Amino acid sequence: MLIYIFIIGLCFGSFLNALVYRIHEKKSLWTRSACPNCQKEIIWYDNIPVFSFLFLKGKCRNCHNKISWQYPLVELALGILFLVPTLFISYPDLKILISLLVQWLIIFDLAFIFLYDYKYQEILDLSIWPLVIFLFDFNYFFEVFSIVNMLIAVAIGGGFFLLQYLISRGRWIGGGDIILGVLMGVILGWPNILLALFIAYILGGIVGVILLLLKKKQANSEIPFGTFLVIGTLVAMWWGNRIVEWYLGLIR
What we know:
Layout: H1 2-25, H2 51-55, H3 70-83, H4 94-120, H5 129-141, H6 147-168, H7 175-188, H8 192-213, H9 226-251
């Protein structure tokens, strides 16, 4: 079963790569995949996640141009991330399986946000609001979070970035971070939204300092902060309660 889930994750990773590219380039989602260099359609057996990249030695079969390492890395990442929620399943029942499917949906959407923001420094509305509406209803009907809990988390997640946006007049953060904060609130609820924000800022600060020391960025350079928010969200979603309990145990 774990192997089967891993393969499903690989396939969704392959689809994610194509989705990010086609949405940015405004290309149809229903046409066959093609090499971005020579535009030749990719044969199905050259489109097998990870395996085809290794078999072709990272080059297009037709034009022999290099294929970006992004493709197998994203596929592997989705394969592994799809496995993580299964670690928290003690026994399978209908409610657990539904929860697993929802977590896969969240993982895929967050991975899209991560990759798109990393490549193009933009967070799209279409990756936020449909999932916000769905999760708000799901969390309420399945009693994951109360409405009050979600509204508090949304106010913190979205309001925190909105305040920064207004104070800096858009110089510190972009509007995409605000709506991503809303999504984080619906995913995590209170108080895990605070943990996710804390993790994101710690990671962002560490990476920023490293990039400055390596002279890869300047002090006024932009960093795709949505990528760190995604990582913080995933950590808080899976291990948030344990981290909060551990921290509270330290200060008691």
